[in-house]
Write a structure and sequence with these properties.
Blueprint (H helix, E strand, L loop, with lengths): L10 E2 L10 E6 L12 E16 L7 H12 L3 E8 L10 H16 L6 E5 L10 H12 L6 H7 L8 E9 L2 E10 L12 E6 L5 H13 L16 E6 L13 H23 L7 E9 L2 H12 L2 H8 L6 H8 L11 E6 L2 E7 L2 E2 L4 H8 L3 E7 L5 E8 L3 H8 L4
Helix pairs in contact: 1-2, 2-3, 5-6, 7-9
């Protein structure tokens, strides 16, 4: 087990958030983004009312869409028909923010013929700029009219900001003898830090699961996926993970823990873990994915804290960018991790498709070939394996290197 969840392999399928039965999506450019080739408004809707669960940023500054989404899910008892989302403008720190977020839900609901409280909302982009509602209002009918089971890519494109690639994952799994599907889409490249949720992430499934069990599964899996992800140490104001279950696969509703719940949770972990890797690899300016595995820990909390401490280290991120096997930076980050363990028992290896090199044993350096280490670090996915030798629990965390381009991207992000 990794991260306290049994890792299983699942059959991947196409379709993103539309892979599961009953979901349709669309995306278009409404004018928020001056680049007409880039979508900036998206809609994902279920044919039926879904059970839903969500987690949000822990930043004290929260975007208006989060406040409205929380209110709507509370009013419906954790049910929703879908969500409307925009990029380019975060609708955060604005006096009229909640009014605009509510208006987006009302516009989408009217176009779909459902109640406004059955629609939730998300936004991403620049903080502190007034969201113009007029372009959204002028294009919602077109957006709804174009909904399609094949529209997942258009919606995934609509949530991208500084992302360089779309991030989608979909799988098949079995619950109660019924074949189910689950699919997700995510956006995020910068302003990502392991502090509850991160970025915008939407996951749909046709498995029948109660809202309560959805919330439990989502909370547990977020802890060991998105909360173990860091790009730059900044936590956004709009971070949201939304999970919707239509129940159209026909399984008996999962309303308690057991084998069906465990299968569902493993599928959720697979989808969210792979989207987490995509988010890390597409970090702003990044050239390398870093995956740190901490094993031999006495408990899950210790394993997570150590792994996260390593992937959050700016000095290590710079060393990985420079392909410099400066392993002392790894041990330094392990050493300031706020957990209780014996540093004199720690082993560290670095690995990639270029090979594997032992750099530390029993808390001290060992001789290694700089040429071999350079070959390992020249790959675009770098593994760091830590063994605490103080238990049998393992956890993973994900990050990326820190490059010159990160500064360039964020030096003129708004202008």
């Amino acid at each position: 087990m990794i991260n306290g969840i049994e890792e299983k392999e699942f059959q991947r399928v196409e379709g993103g958030v539309c892979a599961a039965a009953g979901f349709q999506a669309n995306g278009l450019n409404c004018g928020l983004n001056k680049n007409k080739e880039k979508n900036d408004l998206g809609l994902v809707v279920s044919d039926v009312l879904c059970s839903a669960a969500a987690v949000y940023t822990t930043n004290k500054v929260k975007g208006a869409p989060i406040l409205v989404t929380k209110k709507h899910l509370a009013a419906t008892g954790g049910k929703t028909r879908g969500f409307i989302v925009n990029s380019k403008n975060a609708n955060t720190c604005n006096a009229d923010g909640e009014e605009k977020a509510e208006r987006m839900c009302e516009l989408a609901a009217k176009a779909l013929g459902v109640n406004p409280e059955e629609i939730v909302v998300a936004s991403t982009g620049v903080i502190g700029e007034i969201l113009p509602i007029e372009p959204i209002a002028a294009h919602v009918e077109e957006l709804a009219a174009g909904l399609s089971p094949q529209g997942h890519a258009k919606a995934a494109n609509a949530i991208m900001t500084t992302d360089t690639v779309m991030k989608e994952v979909a799988v098949e799994f079995t619950v109660g003898g019924k074949v189910c599907r689950m699919g997700g889409m995510a956006k995020g490249s910068g302003m990502i830090h392991p502090n509850m949720a991160t970025t915008l992430n939407f996951i749909t499934t046709d498995a029948a699961v109660s809202s309560e069990m959805l919330q439990k599964a989502l909370r547990d899996v977020v802890k060991v996926t998105y909360n173990c992800l860091s790009v730059d140490g900044d936590t956004s104001t709009n971070d949201t993970v939304l999970l919707m279950a239509s129940g159209l696969a026909g399984n008996d509703e999962i309303a308690a823990e057991g084998e069906d719940y465990d299968n569902f949770k493993s599928a959720l972990y697979f989808v969210m873990m792979h989207m987490t890797r995509m988010l890390a690899k597409d970090g702003e300016g990044a050239t390398k994915l870093i995956e740190c595995t901490c094993g031999g820990a006495p408990d899950l909390e210790t394993a997570i804290i150590v792994a996260k401490s390593v992937i959050r280290s700016p000095l290590l991120k710079c060393a990985v960018f420079g392909e410099d096997a400066n392993w002392g930076r790894i041990l330094c980050a392990i050493g300031y991790a706020e957990a209780d363990f014996d540093i004199d028992k720690v082993d560290v290896d670095i690995s990639s498709t270029g090979g594997c090199v032992a750099v530390c044993r029993n808390g001290a350096g060992v001789a290694f070939s700089e040429e071999e280490a350079k070959a390992v670090l020249s790959a675009d996915e770098i593994g760091i394996a830590i063994d605490l030798h103080q238990g049998d629990v393992s956890a993973k965390a994900w990050g990326c290197d820190l490059t010159y381009d990160y500064v360039k991207i964020n030096g003129d992000y708004r202008t």
